[in-house]
Amino acid sequence: MRMTANTNIFTDKRTNNWFKACIALNVTKEGLAHFVDTEITTVHNAVGRSCGNCCTENLVACPTKGICKNTKNCIYHTQTKRPRQCPMKLCNLAAKSITSQHRYNGPSWFNTKAELWSTDHWQIAKCFFPPDGYINVSSIYETDFNGVISVLLNCKHFETCISFTIAPKPPAPECLLTRARQIGRDIRHTPDCKVSDDELHDFFQTLDTLLADPKCLAQDPVASSARTKLLDLQNDCLTLTELGELLKEANQILIQARESGERFSENAERTLTEALNTLEAAILAGEQRIENKIQDGIERVTQAVYETVQEDYERAVADLLSRLIDHYRDSVICVPLSTLNPSLDIRVQEIYANQKIHKMKIEKDGKRVKQEQIYKYRDCFCGEFKRIYLQGEPGSGKSYFAAKLVHDWCNVHAPIVKSTNEQMMFGDVDTLQKFRFLFFISLRDSREQTHVTQMIKTQLIYKIYAEDAWESAYKLVLKIMKNMMSLIIQDGLDEWPCKEALPSMDRIPKDQRIVLTTSRPWKLADERIRNSQIDILFDLEGISDPEEFNEKILRCLLDESNDIKKSVKLFTKFLESRNLKSISSSPMLNTLVLCTWVDDRAERLTGSSLCELYTTLLENLCKKANPQISYFDRNHTSPVNCFSRTMYVKPNMKHIDAIAKAAFTFLFSNEKESSLVFSDIHLMAHLSPTAKQFALNSGLLSQRKGKKCTDQTLSFVHKTIQEFLAAFHINRNADVIDDVISGYLKRHDNAYRDISQMFIFVCGFNISAANKLSSVMNKLNVYSKYGNYFQDCIISGYKEAVANENTPIHLHLSHFYLRSDNAEDLIQIWTLNTSRARSLKVDYCLGMHVTIRSQDASSADCHGPGPVALPARKDHGLPTLDDEEGVRWSKSCIELDLSSSHNLERLELSGDVTVLKNALVGLKKLKHLTLRCKYNCKALDLSHFEQIESIDISNGVNLLPLSVNKYKTLKCIKITTKYGGLDLSMFENLNSITISNDVKVLPKPLLIHNKLSHIKLQGFDFNHVDNKAIHTWCLLNGADPAQFADYTPVLPSIEHFEFEGVTCSSTWLRSLLSTLLTLDHRVQCNLFFCIITALDREMKSTLRGSDMLSCVKDAARLSYTLITTDLNNTCKFNTDDDSPGLWGTLHGLNVNNLILQGVLNCLNVHHVSSMSRSLASLSQLETLTMHLSSYIDLPLPPCLTHLIVCYKTLSPSELRHLLNKLSACTRSLECRFEFSCCYTIKNNTLTYIPPEEYIPIQQDLEAREHVEVKRFRIYDRKPKTYTWSDDAWSIRDSVVDDGDNSDGIGEDKLYESYLYWIDKSVLNCISMRLQINCSKEQALIN
Fold first, then answer.
1. Strand 355-362 relative to strand 368-373: parallel, antiparallel, unpaired?
2. How many Cβ atoms are within 10 Å of 368's Cβ, its own excluded?
3. By the number of CB atoms within 10 A of the CB, which of 426, 1204, 1243, 1265 ranks highest?
4. Residue 912 in contact with residue 937, Cβ under 8 Å?
5. Across the chain, how many H-helices and E-strands are there?
6. pLDDT of res. 950
7. CB within 8 A of 1075, min separation 6: which ones?
8. How far apart are CA 1209 and CA 1315, in angstroms?
9. CA-CA distance, 912 to 849, in Å (whole number)?
10. What is the pLDDT of residue 707?
């Protein structure tokens, strides 16, 4: 029953009316709260961004009317908060926008905090409040009625949200808002706290009309609720508790009014206080009697509810686990023995054989290098890797491995078979216990879905739960993913038909998931998939032991009366006799051949042709649907060679043609989501009902039911089957290459990679169509330094054409990369494309000697002519040593004639290569030349290139003097071999140059208009008495050596220097940095194995005795150092090998901002005294940032105002010493420290120093008047998280916190490198911010 309260608290009726009016104001404010708060968020977005660092005083001019009058003695602006422009030019724009939004152009600057504008929308609202009194109000719920009404009146935005005109000019009547504001004033400033009945009625009517405004408020549920509450108040229907709460809010007005200095009626204050006391007494009397009786019951009910909820949750978790395991055992882990008969499936553990899986290393430049083979699950899942990728070619067994993984996980959580630890690779199934749940997703079945959670819903939840339980099961899965470690398997990324590069993992916490994704390699080459998104990559090559695999398959195919071991040997012998040994590593192809062999159909498998293999598959599938036999003959010729001996294909050719057309149409559909999985409606547009039924009966197509009985999807039984049939359609309709494929390839970037398998089939069917298609694909193929996908595709297509005896082969290829694994085939293709070739690269590890010649020069290096014409091209005879194709080769050497390669633009020769004299003369279009040959290439003439852009010549190459000249197009030159007469004045567009000390530079400086941005020097000695290095330097930088004895000139366009094996003094390097600091852009200096001597004229005067000897002794080579100069006199040193010479470079440098850190780890300083002297000499240094391995005692530069230091570890005693030193500072200093709590290792046992031992130091600092501790924040490492991840750390506690998270973990660049360098053993980190004002001396911390 609802118990109402009597509002007649006072004996005088008019006083009771006044009391009701007070309550009504607060009810109205509540009703407006949601509407105003929502709209102010829109205003906040419209105002624009702010930097978050400027305070309001910085943005308000001095003087400003109503705020400050006297510029000299301004009480609003202080010395530290003066008017200025925002450094990022954001806050002034935001302030201007706020002013334009104010109806009277007079924002209440006193109320707002500009530094919070970017994060707090209510700080924007406060600009529209009355002039002052609201500085501490932080939300609409702390704002009184007057403040809320002022926002509505003063902010122009609300003109679009209210149906009436706001604040119209006289003589128009006052608007509702103005009248409501006047009601508030009358109530607050009443002299006698009395309101008549008529006045009260008008008050209620005005407030109710405002809340019912039809534009927006009428649809606002909060406003509607407030109107109901006003009616209850007017009719005395409020509950006692509701009335009490409203009265407390009304009393809060009094407190706020006192704080703001607003004049408030003493009678009103006294009357409200009296009403509050009366009402509180009534409420307490009733509540106390009830509370004692129900409190114990509440606790018991709460505990029972919690236990019930927890039991229900655990029961639901166990039920989900059981359903998933049952589902996986009925579907995922049952794999078909062969694509010949998909219905004949068997559990994966019965046929699983060891697979060859290698770890792949992704180099910084993107190159992927094969590493060690892995054998255990722990090699995949026991590291810190969250995003794991398994790549493999078609049919290599990616899904096979995934099924095995799912089976083992099921068996761990619900064992039904004995563990296989001792029987096979990946037998350490206990490793999978860490995954409470496994979610298997087939990406090819995820059409139009981009989020993994949605895929889980449709592929798992919809299949294992009834429809009425779908939503609750989905919520359960999301909750599990937040609290339990899960393994997500995404099978077939290359078959996912979405535009995005990767499925989204939104709503799945990073620290509770590991994702394994399988894919073909071409998909992982997508430039949208960044290397940083691949934690570890594995490469699957196929079956490790084919005989073991064959034995298991045969045990499933043959009855027990057969000798399985003997059958395995017979099958192996059969593969060898048919030259099919190469397919034995592919589970799919191997099983296909094996099943064919068992069915006595093996006589057709006569070679290594993929078309033959898939024809056998097609034949067997046709037999299933229609066993009628018919052969091709003279009257009915076979459409392709590989069909000529079939007996089940011809009777079904009509259906095959229709199905092939559908396969082609879907594969080249512009709607990528329907290219592999398509609806029945779409299929019926291409197939008749009988053709569709034939495809289903034969197994060419598979059909699946969706969540509705009418929702059916279809797909080809395997993507390669669809590609095979699409290729057959092209064979029959070659015009589609121009009509369809050409446009498709132009519309989709790198699409030629996706159709590479189909292209190989076309090579086996119709070489004429393949030649044409290769031409189209070749035009779209671009040069790639590391990716040779198209070349590998052409090689595979060439092999397929040869295997099918197709002629004439004229496959197009313009970019050649000759390697040891492709030389024999690629040479054949080169002979067809000598005039078409645009790039030729010879690998360093080719393993054969290569000679490059022209038509007028020959060599006798190759002994014994090898085949030059293509094996299948019967229109050519066997070549001789003088073959017109320009290639002679044997098993040990290759000789290439480039005289016909007139279109060659890039030539890269490395390793065992000889370039004969004049061999390169005819390459008029050459743009890029790289010669890194082991043998002498003598007297090469490089003067004939008309379009050359880059030259890279290394040791072993001998150039004709003055042969590098008059290159107007040359942009990059690198010469590290002996060369005399490099004339820099001949270059007009050079932007990069690399030379060694073996290059003699003519005394002609580089023309200044070259815009040179990169210079690299090797082996130069700037300390040598002959001054050769100095002269060369001046010439490279467009200067006269005679005019720069005490100054190091630099081109204004320079961006990057590299020094390798260079010797110089710290004085010379300091002079270089001083010049770079005057430039208006960033410049990098890389030093590789350089020697920097500290013993120069300037340093001699400061060194004595042992220090001088130390500098000479410590002038060791620095393995790598990176020095960067930037705007605002910023200098950054990254080094792992410090030396006195390196620190001497800093001595007296005019730098304002200095950053010192390591390259591979935190900086480990060995030469502290040298570093200290240099730091003390930096008279202009204002900001010092250091990443240090350990604490060292360093002096503070005289003008330092900001100190930022990250320590790998810092002990409490070291922190005390550091802070003692800083506390003695005599100037203002702002400090930031990030450090890990110390630990010790003794007897292989880690002993940690807890963060609590550092807290007393902070407490001691707090006691100092001149030291302000702004932050003392403790971070804890989360268990089982990736070491370098932002998510690996959580804030445990903030003893002192400035509330600023912009520089915290995951938000700050400083933290990126700091987290990378933190030791894995560290459990706690501390972040400190200090402000030292140094007003007086303070005793040291004890």
1. antiparallel
2. 19
3. 426
4. no
5. 40, 42
6. 92
7. 1047, 1048, 1049, 1050
8. 12
9. 5
10. 46
